[in-house]
Each structure stands twice: as structure tokens, then as C-alpha cells.
């Protein structure tokens, strides 16, 4: 049985060209970028070339890119690195953030900071007006994600950034799910920090970056060498960074085509369910093109996922970071409340590299068959 992978929002397969770049770099670019000799300079050039790719991808300057081990570290560096500069301040975030943000904010609450967790509407959307109303004289940071990883809702980051102009409030956005899928311009968004991870866009795991606007203060999390302009100690992972840059180049070159393809996948999947007489509701609005989160009345998510897995379909109930437990999605709780049916019957399908419309339709047909079978029990 050939599996159909529909969980690209959790992680994505490495693109063959990226894997080749990674493999070559492992054996050929082995120097330490901080070394003064020729071998080190080769590694430094590879690092500089990659940094330039990342900077241009978001319309930033090369020195504003800090390499990290992934999105979680990038989020933590932005949040704790900002908070350390202003102890005891006020932070604004949303109830639907990734746990890398939520748990960081909860830790700061325990350390004496105050945190406002903004609500969202039934579409998973944060209102810019709510951000404005939550601002205090001691607000030091606003951290709102660009695109939600569970329902895909794209947040009004540009609008929020505009209202924060002229204030001393630092603005961070977690763009892990949106990077490589949506065009991003940090100048238009007015963000001070932006987090990215490679494995969401067919790059290697364990590598990412944080954009830091020039002139915005940041305290490091790690102490050691003077790598990354003293902002992130530790020898850089040059092969992974080089492969990440290749993944970004491919993502940017194919973005428009992929958007059209993924939107077509969404329609094909929903059309099959409709043709099979399956009632469903789409969770989220103005969502990222590769994420389709559906509420299907009459099914229980745990047995649904097990049956999908047996049928050879990889999907999820939401964030991969909480998939080990079947606790209700905090995103859906924020959208619908703690007793809503959507908490127990919603599933996320997400599209990416290697899929074609025939596979998507086959997965949708199997999904419909499972729905009918479960409804009879």
C-alpha cells in the first residue's frame, strides 16, 4: 500500500535537490566558519551566500538574519531576548499561537511579567483593534503569528504593525507556517522579529532563522563564542544552512504555481466529500493555501485518525507538537469554546511536495468511506 502523505504542515519531505545540496555540503564544506584559514573561509562564504538568500526572501538586510536550530528557538530568542531587556513588562499575544510562543509567554508570567492572551473569532482571526485596546504604557512586546499552523488563518500582521508604528513596542511574528508559502516583506509588515523553520518548506530539520530588525535590542539565550554577531553562540550548521537556502530558492521560484496547485487540491478534496454525501465545515478563513481543516459531524477524531492511518493516509488533528495526546486543540477551543463539537470531529489535511490531484481525490474518497463506516457504529 502506497501511503498518501497529507501532513505537510507538521513537517515536509526534503526536496531531492535540497537533499543533494545537503549531502554535498556535508563532505565538502566541513570547515568552521570562524576559522581564519582557507578551509574556514570556504565555509564562511557558504554561510554568507545563504544568509543573503534568506535576507532577500523577506526584503531584509544580510546582518539582520540570525541562524537558529529552528522555529522554536527563533520564537524563544525573540520573546526571551526582548523580555530580558525590560524586566516585568507587559506582553500581548493570541490564544492560538504555537506552543513555542504560548509556553514562552507562560514562563514569563511565572517570572513576573504580565501577559494578555487575545481572543480570536470563529474564523481564528485576531482583530487588530483588540491589539490596540490591549496596549498598556508598559507593553514591551506583541507576538502574533502570521499564519496559523492548525486552521491556516492568515493574521492581519501588516495592520497590527502599522498601529504599532511610533511606539516603543517590539513586534514579533511567527512565520514558520507561512514562510515559503506567502510573499513576505518585513518592511510592509512592520515587524521587528520574524521566525522561520526549514523543515516546513522541504528543507532539513534542525535549522531556521530569526530576522532581527537593525537597531532593535536583543539579549542572547546562549553564551559561548561570538557567532552570529554575538547574538547566538555556537558553530553554525553550514550543511543544513546551505540546504535550507536551496529550499528557499526553490520555494520562491515555485510559489505561484504551488499556491494554485494547493488551492486546486483543496477544491478537489471538498468536491469528493460533497459528491459522496459527506457533510463538513471548513475551519478557518483566508487560510494558507496548503492547509485544509475540516469539521465532520458524526466522527470521533481519535478513531478517525486511526482508520485513516490504516487506510494509508497521514493526516493530523492539529499541531504535531501535541499529537502524542488527544487533548482538545487549543486553537479550536479559542475559536469555538471548550464544549464545541468541532473539538472532537476536526481534522487537518495539508498538502505539499510529491502530491498530485489523483492522490488527493483518492485520499478524499477513502476519507468519505471511513466517515460512512464510523457513522454506522
From TrEMBL:
NCBIfam families noted in UniProt: PRK02948.1
Family: Belongs to the class-V pyridoxal-phosphate-dependent aminotransferase family. NifS/IscS subfamily.
Source organism of the structure: Planococcus koreensis
Reaction(s) catalysed by this chain's protein: (sulfur carrier)-H + L-cysteine = (sulfur carrier)-SH + L-alanine
Name of the molecule in the record: cysteine desulfurase
Protein's UniProt keywords contain Iron-sulfur: yes
Enzyme Commission number(s) of this protein: 2.8.1.7
Keyword presence, Transmembrane helix: no
Lineage: Bacteria, Bacillati, Bacillota, Bacilli, Bacillales
Membrane spanning residue stretches: none
Amino acid at each position: 500500500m502506497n501511503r498518501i502523505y497529507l501532513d505537510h504542515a507538521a513537517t515536509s519531505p526534503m526536496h531531492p535537490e535540497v537533499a543533494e545540496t545537503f549531502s554535498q555540503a556535508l563532505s565538502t564544506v566541513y570547515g568552521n566558519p570562524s576559522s581564519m584559514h582557507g578551509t574556514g573561509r570556504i565555509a564562511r562564504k557558504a554561510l554568507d551566500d545563504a544568509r543573503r538568500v534568506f535576507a532577500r526572501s523577506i526584503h531584509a538586510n544580510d546582518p539582520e538574519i540570525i541562524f537558529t536550530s529552528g522555529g522554536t528557538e527563533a520564537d524563544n530568542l525573540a520573546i526571551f531576548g526582548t523580555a530580558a531587556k525590560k524586566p516585568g513588562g507587559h506582553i500581548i499575544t493570541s490564544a492560538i499561537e504555537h506552543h513555542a510562543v504560548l509556553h514562552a509567554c507562560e514562563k514569563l508570567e511565572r517570572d513576573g511579567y504580565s501577559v494578555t492572551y487575545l481572543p480570536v473569532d470563529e474564523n481564528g482571526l485576531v482583530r487588530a483593534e483588540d491589539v490596540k485596546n490591549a496596549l498598556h504604557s508598559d507593553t514591551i512586546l506583541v507576538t502574533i503569528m502570521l499564519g496559523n499552523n492548525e486552521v491556516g488563518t492568515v493574521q492581519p500582521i501588516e495592520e497590527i504593525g502599522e498601529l504599532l508604528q511610533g511606539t516603543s513596542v517590539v513586534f514579533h511574528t511567527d512565520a514558520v507556517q507561512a514562510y515559503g508559502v506567502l510573499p513576505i516583506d518585513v518592511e510592509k509588515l512592520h515587524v521587528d522579529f520574524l521566525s522561520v523553520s526549514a523543515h516546513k518548506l522541504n528543507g532539513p530539520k534542525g535549522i531556521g532563522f530569526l530576522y532581527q530588525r537593525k537597531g532593535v535590542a536583543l539579549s542572547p539565550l546562549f553564551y559561548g563564542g561570538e557567532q552570529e554577531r554575538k547574538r547566538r553562540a555556537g558553530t553554525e550548521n553550514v550543511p543544513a544552512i546551505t540546504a535550507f537556502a536551496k529550499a528557499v530558492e526553490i520555494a520562491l521560484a515555485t510559489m505561484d504555481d504551488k499556491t494554485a496547485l494547493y488551492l486546486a487540491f483543496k477544491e478537489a478534496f471538498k468536491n469528493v466529500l460533497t459528491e459522496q454525501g459527506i457533510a463538513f465545515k471548513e475551519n478557518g478563513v483566508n487560510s494558507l493555501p496548503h492547509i485544509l481543516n475540516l469539521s465532520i459531524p458524526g466522527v470521533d477524531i481519535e478513531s478517525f485518525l486511526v482508520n485513516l492511518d490504516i487506510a494509508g493516509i497521514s493526516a493530523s488533528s492539529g499541531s504535531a507538537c501535541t499529537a502524542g495526546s488527544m487533548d482538545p486543540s487549543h486553537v479550536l477551543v479559542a475559536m469555538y469554546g471548550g464544549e464545541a463539537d468541532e473539538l472532537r470531529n476536526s481534522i487537518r489535511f495539508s498538502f505539499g511536495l510529491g502530491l498530485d490531484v489523483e492522490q488527493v481525490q483518492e485520499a478524499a474518497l477513502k476519507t468519505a468511506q471511513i466517515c460512512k463506516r464510523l457513522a454506522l457504529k
